[in-house]
Amino acid sequence: GPHNKRSAENFRMGEPQPVSCKCPADTARVSPQVKRRHRNKDKMSGKADRTSHGILLAKHSLAIVLNIADDERPQSLTRTGRDIFSDFVAENRNSYWNKDLVDGINRVDYLGWFDPQTLFVQGSEKDLEALRDAWTRRSLRPPRHFIIESLGDVCQVQLAPVSQSHFIPLPDVLCQAIAELNSGKGVATQDNLAAYLQKKYSGVPLPNQDVLHELLGELIKERKVYHNGEEYRIVTPDTYTATSPPTPYPTLPPSS
Fold first, then answer.
1. What residues are paired with 49 via a beta bridge?
2. CA-CA distance, 75 to 72, in Å (whole number)?
3. N or C: which end of the chain has fewer CB within 10 A?
4. What is the pLDDT of residue 1?
5. Is residue 47 classed exposed, middle or buried when 0-12, 13-18 and 19+ CB atoms within 10 A define those classes?
6. Non-local CB neighbours of 74 within 8 Å, separated by 6+ positions
7. pTM (two decimals)
8. Going by C-beta distance under 8 Å and a sequence separation of 6 or more, which residues neighbour residue 182?
């Protein structure tokens, strides 16, 4: 009936939340000029802050835009961003005449690497200020095989969360369950699938055996699963060959 059809499509887990994926304009930009302006003096926090537009990422961070030096060899371009960060730290940590830079470079953290050749570092405002000052005075050394083209504050990187639906498509859940059982965790019979759903989604209203059987039949018609006489299995690109056209087994009757 209509009720069973709805049950076969989704688990209802509450009202769906609105989806917002728009970021405000002018986010994720880098200010290359190092200017004395109002800055938050608090130390770096490991937690992302929530704003009215989303989640604020990369607080207290600098972007260092690099360029490959003329003598760089192509085979040495396989280094990871973290390797380049380690080189950057190593090149500056022995600047003992500049205590603030030595302290700062030893405390900043690797935040990430963007192509083309942009290194992101994160730290407290005091430590980042030491790097800014060294760059301003042309005493900040680049990682090996690179030159520093520009250095600036990452003004804002915001993540606008995409909300998940509170409705779980039952066909997807069934396919995932069959795949897990096929991977050696059990035999994908209808009874075992029902038990799997009961265990994984305890507390959620589950479809009855008739609805489960009907949906498995639909998945077979859609060539997403097949039955080999013993259990249900996921259809993969290698399931059927050109000389062996798909002839899926009929579904089994619901167990009594």
1. 56
2. 9
3. C
4. 54
5. exposed
6. none
7. 0.55
8. 188, 231, 233, 234
